[in-house]
Amino acid sequence: MYDSPKLRGYTFSHAPDDFRVWWDKVTQKHELSDGSIRQYVKGYLLKFKLSWKSNWLTQDDYSNIVAMYNETSGMAFYPRPDMYPALTYTVQLTNDFNLTFWNDILETNDQQGYQGDLEGECLYVTATATTWA
C-alpha cells in the first residue's frame, strides 16, 4: 500500500512517480585567528521533492498546486499521513512553477494531465532529524 504525501491538506489524485524526503545538515563555519576552522552544527532542515512524469496530475491537482504556490505563509506537509498521521512539518515550496500540460497521444484513451515537480523545505531548523519508514 502506498502512503501518499499530503500537502496543505490535499492528497493528490495520483501518487508521485518519485517521492524523496531528506534532512540537510545546517552548519556554520568560522575561521579562527590561528587559521583553523571551527564548525557548528545548528540543526537539520527537512527538504522534499515530489515528481510526476508518467503518473499525471489532474486539472483539480493543478488548481490546488496553483493555490499552494500562491500561499504566502507556510503550509502543512505530511510525508506519510497513513503510517504517521501526527508527523507534520510547516513547509514552503522552493522551486519555480514547472507543471506542463501533457497529452498521451499514443494511448487509445487520450489521457491528459500535467507533469512536473514540487520541491520544498521546512520553515524552521530542528535540533534532531527524525526517521520514518
List unreliable stretches of 5+ residues: none
Percent of residues in beta strands: over 45%
Q: Please provide the count of β strands.
A: 8
Through-space gap between termini = 13 Å
Instruction: Count every helix, treating DSSP H or I runs of 4 or more residues as helices.
Output: 1
Proportion in helices: under 10%
Whole-number radius of gyration?
Answer: 18 Å
Judged by helices, strands and strand pairing, the structural class is mainly beta
Largest sheet: 8 strands, antiparallel
The averaged pLDDT comes out at: 87
- The shape is elongated
Listing every helix as H and every strand as E from the N terminus to the C terminus, the arrangement reads EEEEHEEEE
Count of individual domains: 1
Give your account of this protein's structure.
The chain has 1 helix and 8 strands. With about 130 residues, the protein is mostly beta strands. The protein has one domain (about 5-120). Strands 1, 2, 3, 4, 5, 6, 7 and 8 form an 8-stranded antiparallel sheet that branches. A hairpin with a 5-residue loop joins strand 3 and strand 4 (about 35-55). About 15% of the residues are buried. The model has no long low-confidence stretch (mean pLDDT about 85).
Summarize the topology.
Layout lengths: L5 E2 L2 E2 L6 E14 L5 E21 L1 H11 L5 E4 L10 E5 L6 E4 L8 E11 L11
Antiparallel strand pairs: 1-2, 1-5, 3-4, 4-8, 5-6, 6-8, 7-8
